[in-house]
Amino acid sequence: MGEDVGGVRPNTASGAAVSVAAVRRERDSGRWACGFRCLGSVVVFKACDEDNKGYLSREDFKVAVVTLFGYKPSKIEANSVMSSINPNTSGILLGEFLNIVRKKKEAQLYRNEIRHIFTAFDRHYRGYLTLEDFQKAFKQVAPKLPERIILEVFRYYQWKKKGSGSRLR
């Protein structure tokens, strides 16, 4: 009871079944303008909460992450989440789940924003920035910033990347 059968997670309390593949088909068909976000974290929690326990087990959590974010969390990520929850509970409660999802969405937005900014400065679509690209970018966004500071920042990130030559990735 409550087993994964071909990617379907039964929810015995309501008699409904949630298929990750079906959710993806709905999203990809364009019927949901905003993709998985319209599904809602609470709905995903309830759909993945087998037997209406009121919490998500480790496996339930993995299915919820696949549903919301489109990837299966690693063992390290799952262990980190499970070790961070209240030890007096048998799993992840709704409030804890919503907090985890909020943090993941914020991190995802931040990464997307960084990728977008980097792409805007990578005018030649090379996947890296040369010192010249870096200088031009800073001249656009901070024209009064001294050249010395721009060079120091570029060299710092070069050093952080362990000497990637004259470019940043």
Automatic annotation (TrEMBL):
Top-level lineage group: Eukaryota
GO molecular function, one term: calcium ion binding
Coiled-coil region list: none
PROSITE patterns: EF_HAND_2 (PS50222)
Name of a matching Pfam family: EF-hand_8
Domain EF-hand per the UniProt entry, residue ranges: 44-71, 109-144
Gene3D superfamilies assigned: EF-hand
Record protein name field: EF-hand calcium binding domain 11
Lineage: Eukaryota, Metazoa, Chordata, Craniata, Vertebrata
Gene: EFCAB11
